[in-house]
Amino acid sequence: MPRTRLRILATAVLLAVTAALTGCSSSDDTAPAAARADLPDGSPTLERIVKAGELVVGTPDDMPGFNLLDPITGKYTGFEADLAAELAEHILGAPKVKHVAITTDTREALIVNNTVDAVLSTYQITAARLERINFAGPDLLLGTGIVARKDFEMATVTALPQLAKVRVITTAGAAADILKAEVPGAELVVFDSAVACVRALEDGRGDVFVNNEATAIAVLAEHKNLKIVPNTLPDASFGIGVSKSDPVFTKFVNDFLTAAIADGTWKKLWEKNVTPITGEPAPKPPVVGDLGLE
C-alpha cells in the first residue's frame, strides 16, 4: 500500500478513536444527561425534568453563601446552589440546572404554574405557604439574623419584644408578618428587598435589620461596616418549595435530603460555602420531615 494511503488511513483511525473517547468523556458539559433508571413512577415533576434534561430551580442571585450569581462566568455558587446541582445529578446523572430568578412575591406562583420544578431560596416553611405548595425538607434550620452598624450598641436579644425599643428594618413577607405579630409596638420600616434594607440601615433610617440568619450571613459577607447582634431566639425551618399536586416528588426530594445528610454531603456543602463567611463549623443538620410548625 502506498505511504500516502497509509498516512490517510492512520489519520482517519486516530480521528475516529479521538472522537469516540471525547464522546464518552464524563466532563463534557454538552453531553446529554442520562436519567436514573429507578426513578419512581407517578411524578409529573420528575417526568418533566427527565424530558427537559435539566432541573429548573427558582433562586435568588444575590445571596453570598447560599445563592450567588457570578455575572462574568454566569455560574451560581452557594450552599443551596450546590444542593440544587446535587439534586439534579441525583435525578439525571449530571448537575444540569437551569436557574430562574425569583422574588418573595413570585415564588409560590412559579411553583403552582410549573414554571420551576423547585425553589431553593432560604425559603421559610409557614402554614400559610403550605396552603399553596409543599415543602421538602427542611434543608436548613436558621435562627433570626439581627444586623446593625458596628457603632450601634445593643445587648444580646433573648426575646423579640426587646426590638420594640429600636427602629426595625425588615423585608416584606414572613419576616415582617412575624415581627408585626410578636412585636406590635415596634417601629417597622419595610422594604421589598434585602438590598434596600441594608441601604436604609447604612443611611441611618433604622437601627437594626431583622431577617433570617442566612440573609444576615449574606449581608455580613459584603458589608464589613456592619455586624450581627447576638441573639438566643429559636430557630425556624426552611425547605425546598415543590408542587402540592406532586407528593411523589416531595417524597423523592425528602429521601435525597435524608441521604445527603447521612453521607456527609450536607455538612460538606455548608463548610464549603458558609463557614468561610462565618468562621463557624457546620451546625447540626435538620431532621427531614419535621417542618417545625407544631
Strands, count: 13
Kindly report the average pLDDT value: 88
Strand order of the largest sheet: 5-1-6-13-7
CATH class call of the largest domain: Alpha Beta
The level of helicity is 25-40%
**Which of globular, elongated, flat, extended, rod-shaped describes the shape?**
globular
Radius of gyration: 23 Å
Low-pLDDT residue spans: 1-30
Q: How many domain units?
A: 2
Q: CATH superfamily assignment of the largest domain? A: Periplasmic binding protein-like II
* Level-2 CATH architecture of the largest domain: 3-Layer(aba) Sandwich
**Can you count the helices?**
11
The profile of the biggest β sheet is:
5 strands, mixed
Structural class: alpha/beta
What fold name goes in the CATH topology slot of the largest domain?
A: D-Maltodextrin-Binding Protein, domain 2
What's the N-to-C terminus distance? Answer: 83 Å
Q: Estimate what percentage of residues fall within beta strands.
A: 15-25%
Helix-strand pattern: HHEEEEHEHEHEEEHEHEHEEHHH
